[in-house]
Amino acid sequence: MFLLLPFDSLVVNLLGISITVLFTLLLVFIIVPAIFGVSFGIRKVYMKTLLKIFQWATLRIERGAKEKNHPLYKPYVNGIIAKEPTSLEEEIKEIRRSGSGKSLDTPEFELSDIFYFCRKGIETIMDDEVTKRFSAEELESWNLLSRTNYNFQYISLRLTVLWGLGVLIRYCFLLPLRIALAFTGISLLVTGTTVVGYLPNGRCKDFLSKHVHLMCYRICVRALTAIITYHDRENRPRNGGICVANHTSPIDVIILASDGYYAMVGQIHGGLMGVIQRAMVKACPHVWFERSEVKDRHLVARRLTEHVQDKSKLPILIFPEGTCINNTSVMMFKKGSFEIGATVYPVAIKYDPQFGDAFWNSSKYGMVTYLLRMMTSWAIVCSVWYLPPMTRQPEEDAVQFANRVKSAIARQGGLVDLLWDGGLKREKVKDAFKEEQQKLYSKMIVGSHEDRSRS
Amino acid sequence: GLHSREDFQRIPELAINPLGDRIINAFFPEGEDQVNFRGFMRTLAHFRPIEDNEKSKDQNGPEPLNSRSNKLHFAFRLYDLDKDDKISRDELLQVLRMMVGVNISDEQLGSIADRTIQEADQDGDSAISFAEFVKVLEKVDVEQKMSIRFLH
């Protein structure tokens, strides 16, 4: 028993020393650069090493699968069936053309018309454009996370060892580090903004508030090991404007706010989020709504307009899709923010899913599970493009303007531009769309009103 | 895994298809509310493209699901609401009503239905049997229009 005592104190000493060293490293390499906004480039090196390992791992799996004759599951990004992008009219005319020799210009009904609806319906059952946007994107190469790979079986000892090593590093080294950083970041944000809130209004307060916000967001960025590349920073949003971006996860806010100073818009939550929100609003005017106020569209519009018209206030950050989409497409923008009449600064955010999928599937994971998943991925890599500002032209209405902005964002980010509403994640589609289809078809059978009155 | 009708209705592009409900119905065997993977695949198998080498393969065996005749039968069943192997005037009217919504009056729809039955009906029973259905569509390129090709 006496032999254990010196051993005990040795262990305690070692533990103490390693914790001190860890924290000093943390401070020097992460927190201090965050305060000043510089970077050592450690994360970029980390990213390159990881990429090489992933490529090796994928080759190994493919080779192993070929040897054992296992069929490999390959995700196809562009769809699994051949679809022709023809309209209802053209398709039905084609069917009729092959069926009978009658003239195609007279509107009438044919029994063969049903083939069009039948085939279209079955095509959508096999592969449709909307439902696949609400679940995580499938990867073509493996990134050593068993959660993203459907082929994970025992292929070789080396690969399994590598995967095991990956798990160890991610959960035992990176996770505690990140949690410590996140904790530091959030507590600094809350205390910093509260302290700044006590200062009298003026330039000093604004300056300090800006830097407190930026510093804490930068620490949070490092807490997630987010490697962000900003493009076209000269187009960054200015005061009195609205910044719109495509929405993939709550992390979007941290990514954008660590590079610019924005006024947030949102609903007041309870719990930790609520504490953070209330602290933030003391230092600078964010626009937080009570739960009851959110339903009142006119109230929301009025408050936003007031904020925007005050040129000393910060640009507002809004995500017009209204819900998280999986970053392969951009869905319908809600027109509310485009009716206000301010300059719109579009921003496109595209995540690289190889290092960690940032999409928040809110029907599958809660917020805490989601954050844990984020913190145990390798890294969050994304690109942010600041697009040139747009204003509403006199001859377009809010919906057209919203669609124009949406197309610009989709084009820049390499995303599919869809007209479907992100709300379809939870709700059924409106009957108006079905009625549109029925109307189109009726024209083919009986012609439009003008034709009938002529004959 | 089993699918129910609600699972299909969650697909937005299917929900806006005027005949969406009829198509969903085709997956479910008589009186059942759930379809398993086998049943699902059986129904989808109707839409496999017809390949030439299959035509000469097995003359004595049962006809493959994606033959021209079976594809036409699938479409016939979409019209035949009560599954009595005849498309009556009422059934045709109901399916037409699904396809056009509120945009055409009852009388006009009625006359369209009458004309269609008149043209197709050969045995004078004011209904379209499967044989008559096939005759009307004999020139239509069913193989191409009722087939879905997989990429890769």
From TrEMBL, chain A:
Transmembrane parts of this sequence: 12-42, 155-173, 179-200
Protein name: GPAT4 acyltransferase
Keywords: Acyltransferase, Lipid biosynthesis, Lipid metabolism, Membrane, Phospholipid biosynthesis, Phospholipid metabolism, Transferase, Transmembrane, Transmembrane helix
Family: Belongs to the 1-acyl-sn-glycerol-3-phosphate acyltransferase family.
Domain Phospholipid/glycerol acyltransferase: 241-352
Gene: Gpat4
Gene Ontology cellular-component terms listed: endoplasmic reticulum; membrane
GO biological process terms held by the UniProt record: phospholipid biosynthetic process; triglyceride biosynthetic process
InterPro entries tied to this protein: LPCAT1-like, Plipid/glycerol_acylTrfase
Predominant place of localization: membrane
Localization annotation: Membrane
Organism: Grantiella picta
Pathway info: Phospholipid metabolism; Lipid metabolism
SUPFAM superfamilies on file: Glycerol-3-phosphate (1)-acyltransferase (SSF69593)
UniProt GO molecular function: glycerol-3-phosphate O-acyltransferase activity
UniProtKB/TrEMBL annotation, chain B:
InterPro entries membership: Calcineurin_B_homologous, EF-hand-dom_pair, EF_Hand_1_Ca_BS, EF_hand_dom
Pfam families in the record: EF-hand_7
Subcellular location field: Cell membrane; Cytoplasm; Nucleus
Homology family: Belongs to the calcineurin regulatory subunit family. CHP subfamily.
Any one GO biological process: protein transport
Official protein name in the record: CHP1 protein
A Gene Ontology term for the protein's cellular component: plasma membrane
EF-hand domain residues: 67-102, 108-143
Protein's UniProt keywords contain rRNA-binding: no
A GO MF label: calcium ion binding
Keyword Lipid metabolism: no
Main subcellular localisation: membrane
Keyword vocabulary terms for this entry: Calcium, Cell membrane, Cytoplasm, Lipoprotein, Membrane, Metal-binding, Myristate, Nucleus, Phosphoprotein, Protein transport, Repeat, Transport
